[in-house]
Amino acid sequence: MIYKFAVGVAVALLLAQVSPHLPALSFKLLSSLNPVFLVGFPGWALLLLRAGVGGLFLLHGYPKITHLQEWSDAMKMPLFLCFLSAASMLAGGVCLIVGFLTLLASLPILGSMLFAIYLDLSKGLPFVASDPYLIPQGQYEGPNGKGEPPSWEKAFMYCLMLVAIAVLGPGAYSLDALIFGG
How many CB atoms lie within 10 A of CB 53? Predict the structure, then answer.
């Protein structure tokens, strides 16, 4: 409890220091991240990565937003935060698929995935779960019988993919390239 309070105070103090300069900082940050829109095989690879990750986040976000109250109760999180997370997955997923505002679409989803890692770590879950076929009988049964035991591996992999997309840009085969590529 004290830890959460201290983190909240630290974030509030940081925002208070940065907020007067936020418009200038955000413009400078975005202009310095002007991507080179990769063409050829790297561009196609980025398209596949973007569309694949975007599609997966549509699949993750849709059930969360359609069953928002149940998800909020299961997570023991405020409804509003669950809504923001699910909405970022849906809207960000669409933006990633078409390559529109790719950096801005990646960051909120990345925040959700980092928070998912934090939750998994606070539960003491392992990074990689044991192979479900090597777990002794009756020790773990997934919702439909044998399943993958919980771990934070998947959220970590999503973080890596989102960072790659944010750093490398959307590639030449994107709306960003069409609109901002010049």
Answer: 22
